[in-house]
Specification:
The protein is α+β, with helices and mostly antiparallel strands.
Length: 527
C-alpha cells in the first residue's frame, strides 16, 4: 500500500468513527470492538478471519503460537482481549484506532522473542497485533538492498537473500525464528557485526503506523523518529510495518570452528588471553564464547567448559595465519575448521547441519522453554581472581554465559549515530541465561541468575551499568502507569545512556498521550 492510498483509507475510517456512539461499560466490548474494526468495509466475515476474541475457537492456538518464553504461557498471566492478525496496512490502522477508542493498550508481535513477554503480556486490558501475515521480502541485488515486512523472521530473510545471491548477506542474529520487526528496532547483532555493524546500522528506510493511524515512511516521519526506531525499540513509537535495509557483501568461502576447553585443559588462561585480544582482532573474525557447567562423564564431577566458537570471512589458510599471529594459546588446527558458504554458516550457527536444505530456515515454530536473561558490557578485562570467582558461582548454578566480542566496525560508529550506544570502549558483551522446566523451579532459578549478576558488578561497565535492549530485563526497573522521564531513567540510561533523553523528546512529539506504552517503553519528555 502506498502512503497516498493509506491516507485516503484512513480518512474514511476516521469519518466513520466520528459517527459511532462511544462504547460504554454496559456495552459488550467484544461486539463493540468488532463493529469498530468492520467499519467502512461491512464485511463481518473478513473481520472474523482477522480479529480473534477470547470466545474464538482459534484464540488459544494463536496465542500459544508466538509465546517463546513459557514463563508467560501460564493461566495466571493476563491474556489479550483480542488478537488481530492484519493482512494489510489498513488492518493495522484499524486496530490502533479501535484500541484507542476502547481504552485498550496495543502490543505488537513480529516473532514473539521478547525476553520479558512485553509484546504479548499486559496488566491492563489490551490487544495484540500479530504481524505473522505480513512477511513479504523483496530483494534488489542491483541496489544491494531489501524491503522486509516486519512479520518476517530472520531465517526467512536469510533464505531470501541466499536465493538471490551467494555473495550477499545481512548482519543480524543467529536464531532464525526471531522476528525482523523487533530485532532491528532494538539493534540486532550476529556473527558478522564486527565487520559491518548492527542490523539497525543497515536500515535506510522504514514504514510505521503512528498513534493517529497514519502510515509514515522515512520522509514523512522525519529524521528524529527514523533515528529513534533504529535501536530505540519501535514499540514505543508505533507499529513498524517494514524495513528497507542495505545488504552486505560476503566472500564465497567462510570458515567456522568450535573448540571447547575445560579447566583442566587450560580454559582459564585461554579465556584471560581472549579478553585481551578478542576486540582487537580484524573485523572479519567473530570469536565468541559460551561458558557453562560440564559434568560429562558424571564420574569426573562437575567442571567449567569454555567453548570458543568462530566465524571467519575467508579461507581456512588465512584464518590459521591470523590465529598464529594473534591467539596461539587456543591451539586452532586445520582439522578444527570447516570451510563453507556464508548461508551454510547461518545453518550451522542456528543448530542445523550445513547439508540441510535451506528451507529449514523457514520454520517458525518452536519455543525456548522457561528462561530468564540479563546482560552486561565489559570495558576492561576481568582479573584472574574475578574469573576464578565466576567459575565458583557457575558451578553452584545452572546458568550459561554467552560472551560476544565487540571492536571492529562497532568501535568506528558514534554512540549517538543510533540509540544503540554500546560502541567504542566495550571489549565484549555478556548475556546471562538460565532455563528451567517447571513453575516450581522459577524463583530458585531466577534467584541464581540474580546472584551471579550481582557478583559480576565490580567487573562490568558502570555509571550506568549498561544493558542490551533486546535482552529485556525488568529487574532494571519498570514503568508504573504514566511514568515520568526522571523515574524511567533508572532503566533507560542502562539501555541507551545519553541517547535516552533524545528518545524521550521524540516520544513526546510522536505520541504525546503515551498510547504506545509498556513496562519499559520510552516515556514522553516535554520541553
Amino acid at each position: 500500500m502506498t502512503i497516498t492510498s493509506a491516507k485516503s483509507l484512513l480518512l474514511s475510517i476516521t469519518i466513520f468513527f466520528s459517527i459511532l456512539p462511544s462504547p460504554s461499560f454496559s456495552f459488550d466490548l467484544e461486539r463493540s470492538f468488532l463493529r469498530c474494526f468492520a467499519s467502512g468495509s461491512g464485511n463481518s466475515n473478513l473481520t472474523s478471519r482477522i480479529v480473534f476474541a477470547k470466545s474464538s475457537s482459534s484464540y488459544n492456538h494463536l496465542l500459544k503460537s508466538f509465546i517463546r518464553n513459557l514463563r508467560f504461557s501460564d493461566n495466571s498471566v493476563p491474556k489479550p482481549n483480542f488478537i488481530v492478525t492484519p493482512r494489510e496496512i489498513l488492518h493495522i490502522q484499524k486496530a490502533v484506532l479501535c484500541a484507542k477508542r476502547h481504552d485498550l493498550q496495543a502490543r505488537v508481535v513480529s516473532g514473539g522473542h521478547d525476553y520479558e513477554g512485553l509484546s504479548y503480556v499486559s496488566d491492563v486490558p489490551f490487544l495484540i497485533i500479530d504481524l505473522v501475515n505480513l512477511r513479504s521480502i523483496t530483494i534488489d541485488i542491483k541496489s544491494d538492498s531489501a524491503w522486509i515486512e516486519a512479520g518476517a523472521a530472520l531465517g526467512e530473510l536469510y533464505y531470501a537473500v541466499a536465493k538471490h545471491s551467494k555473495i550477499h548477506g545481512f548482519p543480524a542474529g543467529t536464531c532464525p525464528t526471531v522476528g525482523v520487526g523487533g530485532h532491528l528496532s532494538g539493534g540486532g547483532f550476529g556473527t558478522i557485526f564486527r565487520k559491518y555493524g548492527l542490523a539497525a546500522d543497515q536500515i535506510i528506510d522504514a514504514k510505521i503506523v503512528d498513534v493517529n493511524g497514519k502510515l509514515l515512511d522515512r520522509t514523512s516521519m522525519g529524521e528524529d523518529l527514523f533515528w529513534a526506531i533504529k535501536g530505540g525499540g519501535g514499540s514505543s513509537f508505533g507499529v513498524i510495518t517494514a524495513w528497507k535495509v542495505k545488504l552486505v557483501p560476503v566472500p564465497p568461502t567462510v570458515t567456522t570452528f568450535n573448540i571447547p576447553k575445560t579447566l583442566d585443559q587450560g580454559a582459564t588462561n585461554i579465556f584471560l588471553k581472549w579478553q585481551r585480544i578478542a576486540a582487537k582482532l580484524p573485523g572479519e573474525l567473530f570469536l565468541d564464547i559460551v561458558i557453562g557447567v560440564d559434568n560429562s562423564p558424571p564420574s569426573a564431577g562437575k567442571t567449567i567448559k569454555v567453548s570458543f566458537g568462530g566465524l571467519y570471512l575467508g579461507t581456512v589458510d588465512n584464518l590459521l595465519s591470523m590465529m598464529q599471529n594473534n591467539f596461539t594459546e587456543l591451539g586452532l588446527q586445520r582439522e578444527n575448521c570447516t570451510e563453507m558458504s556464508w548461508i551454510q554458516s547461518v545453518l550451522s550457527f542456528a543448530g542445523f547441519s550445513i547439508d540441510d536444505p535451506l528451507e529449514v530456515l523457514l520454520q517458525r515454530n518452536g519455543t525456548s522453554g522457561r528462561f530468564k536473561a540479563k546482560s552486561d558490557y565489559v570495558n576492561e578485562p576481568i582479573p584472574v581472581i574475578g574469573v576464578e570467582g565466576l567459575w565458583k558461582m557457575l558451578l553452584e548454578s545452572s546458568a550459561v554465559l554467552i560472551l560476544t566480542p565487540y571492536g571492529g566496525r562497532m568501535s568506528e560508529i558514534s554512540e549517538s549515530e543510533t540509540p544503540f550506544s554500546h560502541r567504542k570502549g566495550n571489549i565484549y558483551g555478556i548475556q546471562y541465561l538460565v532455563y528451567w522446566d517447571s513453575n516450581e523451579d522459577s524463583q530458585k532459578s531466577i534467584d541464581q541468575l540474580r546472584r551471579l549478576y550481582a557478583y559480576m558488578g565490580p567487573y562490568v561497565s558502570k555509571n550506568p551499568r549498561a544493558a542490551y535492549l533486546n535482552y529485556k530485563d525488568l529487574d532494571l526497573g519498570v514503568n508504573r502507569g504514566n511514568t515520568t522521564y526522571e523515574e524511567a531513567k533508572a532503566w533507560g540510561l542502562k539501555y541507551f545512556k545519553h541517547n535516552f533523553e533524545r528518545l524521550a523528546r521524540v516520544k513526546a512529539r510522536i505520541d504525546p498521550g503515551n498510547f504506545f506504552r509498556d513496562q519499559q517503553s520510552i516515556p514522553p519528555l516535554f520541553p
